[in-house]
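#struct-queue
[09:14] JT: dropping the first one here, sequence first, then the structure tokens:
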Amino acid sequence: MYQELLKKERTLAVIGLGYVGLPIALAFSKKIRVIGFDISAPRVELMKKGIDPSNELDAQAFEGCDIQFTANPEELRAASFYVVAVPTPVDQHRVPDLTPLVKASETLSRVLKAGDYVVYESTVYPGCTEEDCLPILEKGSGLQLGRDFKLGYSPERINPGDTVHTLANVVKVASGSDPEAAEEIALTYELVVEAGVHRAPSIKVAEAAKIIENTQRDLNIALMNELSKIFDKIGINTYDVLEAAGTKWNFLKFQPGLVGGHCIGVDPYYLTYKSMELGYTPQIILSGRRVNDAMAAYVARRTVQFLLASGANSRDARVLVMGATFKENVSDIRNSKVADVVHTLQEFQLTVDVVDPHADAEEVRHEYGFDLKPAIEGPYDAVILAVSHSEYLNRDEAWFQRFVKPDGIVVDIKGLYRGMIHTLRYWSL
């Protein structure tokens, strides 16, 4: 398979062209022939024009690519090596929602041929590829794994907004349904991953490796969030403590904050779901999730407490929230915990304005029910720095004083302005 792809005798297809799938498709298309498939025809039309709907890649990324973009599943028949990179969210009850994965598998089952390869990149619980996806492929195609086609799993490691840790320079993990599949899949990925490919001994190991990467980060951030609550009661700044502790060579430099997005705030629930299905209720993982999920409400309540302490009337008070996306310098608002901050403040009858230089106002309104302000309109009783976009860097107290009342407060979730605010009241996690 690898040699035939290299000679362009066969074609690779990527199913799902979001923040993970599109960079993969474009990277491969500079080496081999690629079909990029997405169910959204408007998104496909943008990509045909060299526009990334996720606003992660510039027009140059589309240059010199041997790629065909399509929303027609029938055109997938021309491919032989399929990479599935669709979202794997959780529902309102925090239960894994495999709908995108199931539908992608059903689509593939109708075009799968003898000799084909299918590799999943979507984050799932260990066992999902073989126990949930494989039966769909076999039933819909009438083919049998091993005898007719090969299966693999290679977890994505794309970090939105990160121009340093890219697809090319981050080691990839790959696995296959048998040794031959594993090696062919690894060789294929080595076409675009300069850092190399780690061969995992099984598909389940590769799935588990991905799920614990984000679970580990989630737990470490939960510890920082819990520490920030303790240090707040003691009356010391968490970031000052972390700076001091960070002088030790083996101290892990995590920080407190809002944990949203479609990875760290979601992936642990896939692991806990599988664990509970097998009869074990995780203690530490779920505890960390509870701590992190509660941080938005904690920030909002502390802001209200500061306002009440200054004598402000909640019905008259105005609060500015800076940032609405799930992390800095991206336009992605999925599972943004900033929305939880806004909604909690609104429950206290506060007037809340939200600004964000990256988020799409229509998407925010549709997803969360509030509007983005085109510009900052003071005066405000409080301002909350929720997302450390580059546009908010290098701001001084004089900048805040233009739109924050003299007795107002700067709530700095990210600790960005530590040591810079002296006249206005200041609080951070």
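[09:21] JT: and here's the second one, same format:
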Amino acid sequence: MTRSRKFKSTRRKPGSERSLFEQKLTQRYSRTLDRTDLLNLIRGGEDTYIEFKIRLVNTDKIISEIVALANAGGGAIVFGVNDQRRLEGLDDPEHVEQQLIDISRNHIVPPLLPRIDKVSFDNGVRIVVLQVDDRRAPHKTPDNRYFIRIGSTKREADGSEIAALFARSRVAAFEDMPLVRAAIEDVDEALVWSYIRDLEGEAFREPEGFPTPAAMRDLRLASDYGMSVTPTLAGFLLFGRSPAIERIVPQSRIVLTRLSGSDDDSPVVERVDYYGNVTRLFDLTLSFIKRYADLWDTRPPRAQSGNGEPVLARANYPREAVIEALTNMLVHRDYSIAGSPSRVSIFDDRMDFINPSHTNGNTRKSVEYGATLQPNPRLHHIFTSLEYGIEHARRGIPALRRAHYTFARREPNISLLSDEFRLQIFGV
């Protein structure tokens, strides 16, 4: 009899029931579940990937167990087996199956797409095996709690662990991660309502006293967490108060440096660290740049050197390219990379904009052509809207390249390393 693809032997022979489970049960589902391999798994006992339940009695507990398993990378819950690895069986496996389908569809957010098997043995014992994977993780319970599995036990995830769940997810955006350490009190409510009023214009009809948490939730900039509402990362970066952002999202800071020369070893004239929401970072960074460079809408006549002036004329830069470079830095950086701030370095002849970033398969050409996925689409959309109030330029790297070439008669330099995006703009 042909063995199922899921439990087909691999070239490397498993060294234990645990490695067998990691190789087989956490892969995509197959049509049948091999009873012999299942018995081997049961003999191995509970661990990170497998849980035993005699019955399905406490629905809330089962929900949290399934959430923890899915958030830990996937695995299985076997119903009808006790903690001593003895097959007790189930009286009504069909009813258990229907309960698990209802739980997976209606009591887990986002809904799970499980594989459920009813397995019968020759002695008449019947068990149910629920298999889940992490394709749609992270998951949470109906009361907005995230659970993870450590070894054979589960526990509620803390803020950093929730961040890690969102960071590794390819489905949920990291910017939508709820910041459990933040509260609505850490948000500048006046800034939120200023944006909403400008957005709605004369159609603004929110009643006086309408709660800010509800408004941010409507904007999808906050989410329910437990019994309260907490801002998401995007909502916090857009509207958070600066002291709270410095405490909770320290990796969002920008380091600005003016160097006297044209290389990294040049003497430092001034260096500052700025924290705050993206509005504040934009304004402070642009002000710092204007302190050491002149921004123009069109290429100006270049002052002649050698006329006896004690100080060379400052470099001139295209305003449009500089604003777009700064916007790109704030909204497209990878905020999941901790410990690496964004950096702007101003030299005598150029500016370097350096951002923590994972390439995620992007190439330099795909960036130059604007053919990349935006890592923070919600943050980008609000930040670049007219109602948010930031100085605007034509958007995108292609527009930046055109403006820069028209002004400087050369292309800007773009480079992507494993964890860094670097953009060089040249002055004239």
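[09:30] RK: nice, looked through the second one.
[09:31] RK: Confidence is low (pLDDT under 50) at residues 1-32.
[09:31] JT: good to know. Residues 278-292 form the longest helix (15 residues).
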